[in-house]
Amino acid sequence: MSDERWVSLTDPTGAQTDVDVTVERFASLLDAVDPDELEHTVVSLEDSGAWYLEYNRDYLAFGNAEGGDPVVLKNVDRDEVLGVAADFISGDLDALRARPWRAW
User: Is 17 in contact with 9 (CB distance < 8 Å)?
Assistant: First the structure.
């Protein structure tokens, strides 16, 4: 049994993969979200520890699927979203927790 951390990426259609999970791929999915679309607007990351990062055009949420309430950043620009995603992908939970999250 391996304790190695894995990260998966879910695109706006709900397709999930753990192959080629990079900031660049996350960015390309963000760019593909149609601003006029009402559905299929979420791009998310999840790791083996049940931590997740969920982007929706209205917010960026960070939480743990196994408990606790998620926290959010609102009105974040693309560069900040990608910075947070980079921290998540690299496993830098301290950097993630240091951001100015707000209660949901």
Answer: yes
Asked whether 61 and 72 are in contact (CB, 8 A), the reply is: yes
DSSP output for 37-102 = -SSS--EEEEETTSEEEEEETTEEEEEETTSS--EEEES--HHHHHHHHHHHHHT-HHHHHTS--E
Identify the residue whose tokens are 């304790």: 3
Please state the domain extents for the chain.
7-103
- For the entire predicted model, the pTM comes to 0.91
Rounded Cα distance, 85 and 95, in Å: 11
pLDDT digits (tens, 9 = 90+) for 2-58: 579 999 999 999 999 999 999 999 999 999 888 787 788 899 999 999 999 999 988
Q: What average pLDDT does this structure show over 47-76?
A: 94
The Cα–Cα gap between 85 and 26 comes to 8
